[in-house]
Amino acid sequence: MAECLLVCHKVLQDAKLYLLLLRFDDDLARETQRRRCQRCGGRLDQGHFPRKPRVPCWVALPDGYDERFSYSCAVDGCRKRHTPPSTRFLGRRIYLGAVVVLATAMQQGTTRWRASRLRELLGVSLQTLARWRAWWAETFNESAFWKAARAAFSPPVPEIMAPRSLLERFAGAAHEQLVALLRFLALLSTPEGYVPDRHR
């Protein structure tokens, strides 16, 4: 567990991770704007809104992380909002997706003492960690998103061990696995793909 926590700390401390995810989000935002309004075909104007992501005190986020990319249709009478997928945010959670994924993955198979050490490292309450575990184990596994996506994995992903079992399906070092999983989960950050947290 100590080694896992060290890996978690090292990955979340890497400034390149956040710059890479910001670049992916910028690409997703540009693609959304390029496609125009899904309802009427109108031009999409920038309508980014503020987000205040919570991260451990030792994590330094680059400029731009306090903004969620979004667009609104410019056509009067339409004004439909289009919020592109994000690799930085996992739904409406106040913690960054990277923290939610790694914190939950590091908890699996741990004792209460180890969970407490994880809480100290990340500054996340034990109740929040428990809620994240429940979300992955129940809500995520039952979601339409996962029911459609799980068929792409062979052999099947052991759902009881998500997100750790999902991380392990992606190749590369720990930070590469995390980035790949966040890209896979990006649709969950949109209103269309959002999976509500029943454990709030």
Label this structure with key terms:
single chain, 200 residues, globular, mainly alpha, three-stranded antiparallel β-sheet, two-stranded antiparallel ribbon, 8 helices, 6% strand
Structure description:
By secondary structure, the protein is mainly alpha-helical. 46% of the residues lie in helices and 6% in strands. It contains eight helices and five strands. It has helices at 2-13, 15-35, 97-107, 112-122, 126-142, 144-149, 164-167, 174-184, and strands spanning 44-46, 49-50, 67-68, 71-73, 81-82. It has a three-stranded antiparallel sheet, with helices on one face. Strands 2-3 form a two-stranded antiparallel sheet. Helix 3 (97-107) packs antiparallel against helix 4. The longest helix has 21 residues, at 15-35. The chain is globular, with a radius of gyration of 17 Å. The model has no long low-confidence stretch (mean pLDDT 89).
The fraction of residues in strands falls at 5-15%
**Measured distance between first and last alpha carbons:** 28 Å
| Total DSSP E strands | 5
Give the strand order of the largest sheet, numbering strands 1, 2, ... along the chain.
1-4-5
Contiguous runs where pLDDT drops below 50 for at least 5 residues: none
SSE layout and pairings?
Elements: H1 2-13, H2 15-35, E1 44-46, E2 49-50, E3 67-68, E4 71-73, E5 81-82, H3 97-107, H4 112-122, H5 126-142, H6 144-149, H7 164-167, H8 174-184
Antiparallel strand pairs: 1-4, 2-3, 4-5
Helix pairs in contact: 1-3, 3-4, 3-5
